[in-house]
Specification:
Layout: H1 2-11, E1 19-23, H2 30-37, H3 50-57, E2 63-71, E3 75-82, E4 87-91, E5 94-98, E6 104-108, E7 117-119, H4 128-139, H5 142-147, E8 148-152, E9 159-163, E10 176-181, H6 186-197, H7 200-204, E11 207-209, E12 217-218
Parallel strand pairs: 1-3, 7-8, 10-11
Antiparallel strand pairs: 2-3, 4-5, 5-6, 8-9, 9-10, 11-12
Length: about 220
């Protein structure tokens, strides 16, 4: 009986890889994910190293994480979670879209209209200013996030937001600068920005500084 089971699993053509299913891809072409997975059709299912396949798929630039499972009798299912671009950074005439880990998801010759432009000295996953700016962007409430056009981060403690059309009563597209400061206390800072925008001083101001929520200033 053991010999028969071993033959079915390892030696016969009954339980071998016949199909590869991929789900969750929008940015990464399915064919590129399949090529990266390097799954051999006809390989006995029991011999498939799902962890190795997962690691190879996660090497695809647009992929943040992947899950690989066997679906008996002959299908391998790959579920992909793609990276989500948060900001765009200009490098050498091209615009690189960065996710929350500062990894490049895609790049193009034209600036993506839907993403704020990030300005930092050395953009990348090892740059503290980049990391701080991305954390701030990720923490923003939806109302501020929708109006965000640019982010400047000379240092991790001095993140500044550029908002378009953000002042009630102002002209359409009238810009507002918010000195946000370091990441953290996002809900508190957002409430202060909203309250100031509704005040006479806030409507007249071009800049609101909430970097220290205890001492808010406008100018």
């Amino acid at each position: 009986m053991l010999a028969a089971v071993a033959w079915v699993l390892l030696g016969s053509k009954l339980l071998v890889v016949r199909h590869v299913e991929v789900s969750g891809t929008h940015l990464a072409p399915r064919d590129r994910v399949v090529a990266a997975a390097r799954i051999t059709l006809g390989l006995p299912m029991v011999r498939l190293d799902t962890a190795a396949v997962r690691d190879r798929v996660q090497g695809v630039r647009e992929v943040e994480s992947a899950r690989v499972e066997r679906v008996w009798p002959g299908t391998v299912r790959i579920e992909v979670r793609e990276r989500v671009p948060l900001v765009a950074v200009e490098r050498s005439g091209r615009f690189h879209q960065l996710d929350r880990f500062a990894m490049t998801v895609v790049d193009s010759a034209r600036r993506p209209a839907s993403l704020p432009l990030l300005t930092v000295a050395a953009p990348g996953p090892d740059d503290p200013a980049t990391t701080a700016a991305l954390q701030v962007v990720g923490e923003l409430p939806a109302e501020l996030s929708r109006r965000l056009t640019a982010v400047d981060a000379p240092s991790p403690e001095s993140v500044t937001l550029r908002l378009g059309g953000a002042r009630p009563g102002g002209a359409d597209g009238d810009p507002l600068t918010v000195v946000w400061g370091a990441p953290g206390r996002a809900a508190e800072k957002a409430r202060l920005v909203d309250a100031l925008r509704r005040s006479a001083a806030g409507r007249a101001a071009g800049t609101i500084d909430v970097s220290s929520p205890e001492v808010v200033t406008t100018r």
